[in-house]
Amino acid sequence: MSTETITYVDAIRLALREALRGDGRVVVMGEDVGAGGGAFRATEGLQAEFGPDRVIDTPISEAAFTGAAVGMALDGMRPVVEFQFSDFLTSGLNPIVNTAAKMHFRQRLQVPLVIRAPAAGGFAGGPFHSQNPEAWFLRTPGLKVACPATAEDAGLLLGAAIRDPNPVLFFEQKSLYTRIRGQFEYDENAPLAGAAVRRSGNDVTVVSYGAALHLALDAAEAMADEGVECEVVDLRVLSPLDFDSIRTSVEKTSKCLIVHEDYPDYGVAAEVSARIVETLFEDLDAPVRRLGAKFWPIPFSPSLEQATLPTAREIVDVLRELAEF
Amino acid sequence: MLPLSHATTQYRDDRGAFLTDAGYWLHLIRAVEEAGRRLYLQGRLPGSFYDGRGQEATSVGAALAMGPDDVATPLIRDMAVHLVRGVTPEEMLRHYLGKTGGPMEGRDGNIHLGAFDRGTIPMISHLPEMLPVGMGVALARRRRGVDSVAIGFCGDGASCGGVFHETLNLAAVWKAPLVVVVERNHYAYMTPEQTYLSVSEISSRAAGYGMRAWRADGNDVSEVYDVVSEAAAGARAGEGPGLVEVFTYRMHGHGAHDSQKYVPPDELEAWGPRDPLVRWRTRAQEQIGWNDAQQTELEERVRGVVSAATQAALDAPDPDPADLGPSLFA
Fold first, then answer.
1. For strand A2-7 and strand A181-184, is the pairing parallel, antiparallel, or unpaired?
2. Residue A189's Cα: distance from chain center in Å?
3. How many CB atoms lie under 10 A from the CB of residue A300?
4. Whole-angstrom Cα distance, residue A66 to residue B17?
5. Treating both helix axes as pointing N-terminal to C-terminal, what angle do B15-41 and B276-288 enclose, rounded to 10 degrees?
6. Using one digit for the tens of pLDDT, what is the confidence trace for A201-257?
7. Above 80 in pLDDT, residue B241?
8. pLDDT at position B1, please?
9. Which residue does chain B place closest to A93, by CA atoms?
10. DSSP H or E stretch at residue A299
11. A258, B28, B56, B299 from B302: Cα distances, Å
């Protein structure tokens, strides 16, 4: 526990440590997590503290070790599996979307499994180290999905995910690991639910999550100089989705932009936009807008990547259009 | 002699008890599957119907070798494992018919049966994705001091899948309590093994993964029991995983919808006399003096059980769609 200011990845490590300490059923497993401390240092020191039986190094065998984790969870353990990059989730997709996600539906068996997956780009990672695949899991019934944007939430939501009796995808944001700081105090009652209003305003609602939240806040700051007050809603947890918070905000502002780093096509923005139009049509004074990455694989070269990922400037352009609509 | 409950007995020295019980389960699974197949052909069973005709000894022998806290991941031809572990014929038929009262209450069907409270995990269709899952359960149980071994079933076709190889390697590295029973039945749906197997014995792969292997005549329930018991004992003692290749034959198509046009008729004919129930009866006659009266009594008892179970399943109500939403999350 810490009330000092720590980084996003520190909060993750502290949450894992609290979970390992407080609950003997928790184990951490994945590639390089043990002796190596994790590719992003998220598990540094944990194996030394808790031993190789609690913090387990696995071979490059996502399908097998994730399947094994499902079995451990079925017997009542609380495995926290790390996929080194969210891009590698495809190597272990079946145990997640077919075995874990459907087990409770089929036979009311609990699978309290957490899958931690570092996502997001912005550092010349290229097509296979930069993906934001949350939409694949959001459209799979039976999975919960969280995507923290703050250091505090990285710790709080991870603890909540570990306590949840359902399989949870926990999308960490690589680009935020050491870039942002916050205060995190472990809270064993923190729910795996609820959006948070990060900035209040009456003119336009900006719905966001993860790394893009910070771009949205930057854009909101710029718009304030132009006399447009944006309300920025951080979704925090994508499934279950806190639509009530979105509704409350849109009823107030009548205009909405949804922005995330993932493609706007077929994902969270598309879903939230559809729900707003279906249920809040009469409240709207403008079309619901979406922003995200351009629809092609995330390219490697920094100039190409910058032209692909959403930017604060692009967000400002759309906010202006909405404000003037 | 009464059939067992799901608390299976170690037969070690009592061949008589083993053979008697094995005979019951062999005849029971055959009768249940015949009943299900009949319902399917009459258009009264939804979806597809699969059976393990000709392979009954592999699952009966393996299931009888399980200890009380062992866990199995049975596949398509292994429905007998559920029966041995305590799923009743009525539950099984209710499950096949998509009615209430089966372990999945209609939310999954056919060979995706499982009763975790009795030691069997419901499969997913992707093969052989269940192998590491059973291993995980056994590992978790051993961590809390419970003696458990996972028996993972796998066909020769499924042994080509990536997760088979990942799991064998991982199990060997972790010295996991896993016994993989590879049912060498020579076909993967419509395709004969020459098309997909690069070796003549799958058990030869075990050494490549640093694990032990056994081979057995899959149509001899006693032999299957013996090798699975031995492999499980080794896994239980911490010697690491084992691969058991049991040689058998799939007498029916992949499913009841499959007419097996691709199988040379003389091949099917050659395997007929090697039927596991025929093999069992010969052994029982030789080793415990099993006579015709006992055989008749067994068949009649099984017929009665299955007939009652079938009627009860047909009479059972359909499940309520209102239960679907609440089933999604814990």
1. antiparallel
2. 20
3. 15
4. 40
5. 150
6. 999 999 999 999 999 999 999 999 999 999 999 999 999 999 999 999 999 999 999
7. yes
8. 33
9. B129
10. none
11. 64, 6, 15, 5
What residues are paired with A171 via a beta bridge? Answer: A117
First to last CA, chain A: 47
Residue B307: how many other CB atoms lie within 10 Å: 13
Chain A: closest CA distance from residue B307 (Å)? 26
Q: Give the whole-angstrom CA distance, residue A158 versus residue A162.
A: 6
Q: pLDDT tens across A24-79, in order?
A: 999 999 999 999 999 999 999 999 999 999 999 999 999 999 999 999 999 999 99
- How many residues are given for chain B? 330
Other beta carbons within 10 angstroms of residue A225's beta carbon come to 7
Q: Is the Cβ of B116 closer than 8 Å to some Cβ of chain A? A: yes
Q: Which residues of A31-53 are buried (b: 16+ CB within 10 A; e: fewer)?
A: bbbbeebbbbbbbeebbeebeee
Residue of B nearest to A103 (CA): B122
Amino acid A263 reads Y
Among residues A319, A321, A325, which one has the least CA distance to residue A204? Answer: A319
Note if A129 is an active site residue.
Answer: yes
* Residue A20 to chain B, least CA–CA distance (Å): 15
Catalytic site residue from A104, A129, A214, A260: A129
Determine what percent of chain A falls in helix, strand and coil, rounding each to the nearest 5. Answer: 40, 20, 40
Residue range B86-101, pLDDT digits in tens: 999 999 999 999 999 9
For residue B309, the one-letter residue type is A
Per-residue DSSP letters for A13-70?
HHHHHHHHHH-TTEEEEETT-STT--TTSTTTTHHHHH-TTTEEE--S-HHHHHHHHH
Q: What is the CA radius of gyration of chain A?
A: 19
Tokens of A80: 């926290």
Strand A204-208 to A256-259 pairing = parallel
Measured in residues, chain A has a length of 325
Say if residues B155 and B188 touch (Cβ distance below 8 Å). Answer: yes
CA atoms within 13 A on the CB side of A84: 18
Q: Is the pTM of this model over 0.95?
A: yes
Q: What are the CA-CA distances from residue B156 to residues B195, B200, B232 (Å)?
A: 12, 11, 20
Amino acid identity of B134?
A: G
Tell me if A67 and B330 make a contact (CB, 8 A cut-off): no
Q: Which residues contact B126 (CB under 8 A, 6 or more apart)?
A: A94, A98
In three-state secondary structure terms, B209 is coil
Residues in B closer than 8 angstroms to A98, CB to CB, are: 124-126, 129
Nearest to B135 among A68, A104, A109 (CB): A68
CB contact under 8 A, B167 and A106: no
Hey, what are A5's tokens? 């200011």
CA quadruple A103, A104, A105, A106: dihedral positive or negative? positive
Strand residues in B37-136 grouped as ranges (E): 71-73
